[in-house]
Amino acid sequence: MLTRSDFLGATNGRDTRATPIDLAIFDMDGVLFHGRSFWVDLHHEYGTKVAGERLTDAYLHDYPKLARFVAGRLWKGRSAIVYRALVESRAYQPGVSEVFKYLTSKGVRTAILTSGPDLLASRAQAELGVDAYRANGLGVDTRTDTLTGAATIRVPDAEKARVARELIAECRTTPGRTAFVGDSAPDAPVARLVGLSIAYDPQSEDLAREADYVVPFGELTRVIDILRR
After folding, report:
1. Read out DSSP for the chain?
2. How far apart are CA 60 and CA 126, in angstroms?
3. Which of 32, 74, 79, 163 has the greatest CB tally within 10 Å of its CB?
4. What does pTM read for this prediction?
5. Tens digit of pLDDT for each residue in 176-195?
């Protein structure tokens, strides 16, 4: 049996063996898929990186406003083909398929919680058998196959814990019977909420401190070993 010392983290000292897990929630960018930020990569594809950075600096404190300004000022009228192509080109992290097969075999429900695109979350749902997801999206005009300039914000970065509670309720379980895997600073409040938290290749010291376990890049299958406890 693996102990906390077999991993890189486990900093908050909770006994995660006490309660079984009914639900496993995953962040998406950097956890399920390669790439830290889908939206940053889409800026690169559209050639709007510099303008996007200016808007981010000005409105990062107000995620919905930032998203509306980016979608409406920078991306309105852009080809949706580029958007969908980036979704389709995203590659899974090593071990993702094995982790989800294990969770399915044990009857553990799964969910995605991300401020990334709903198109990518929908793709993962279809390919991995994910039970539920919350994600953001861009409006597409099907007549012209261009972006409408509208943004649908379901997961503000600063409110991931609130949305996690909604997912947990939807899946008919409790925070204490929920596991979460994330990698960035907005994931830290979710790590504090749930009964078992795992930081995968974390880019945030705050998340690494909050997590029960820290798993290095390329070793996502360690999630299976942790859950087997």
Report:
1. ---GGGSS---S---TTSS--SEEEE--BTTTBSSS-HHHHHHHHHT-HHHHHHHHHHHTT-HHHHHHHIIIIISTT-BHHHHHHHHHHPPBPTTHHHHHHHHHHTT-EEEEEEEEEHHHHHHHHHHHT--EEEEEEEEEETTTTEEEEEEE-S--GGGHHHHHHHHHHHTT--GGGEEEEE-SGGGHHHHHHSSEEEEES-S-HHHHHH-SEEE-TT-TTHHHHHHH-
2. 32
3. 32
4. 0.92
5. 999 999 999 999 999 999 99
- The structure tokens listed for 7 are 């991993």
Chain centroid to Cα 169, Å, comes to 18
The parent domain of residue 59 ranges over 4-228
Which amino acid is residue 160, in one-letter code? K
Q: pLDDT digit string (tens) for 81-94?
A: 999 999 999 999 99
Give the CA dihedral 111, 116, 122, 125, nearest 10 degrees.
Answer: -30
Residue 116 phi/psi, 5-degree rounding, is -80, -170
Question: CATH number of the domain that 131 lies in?
Answer: 3.40.50.1000
d(CA 34, CA 90): 7
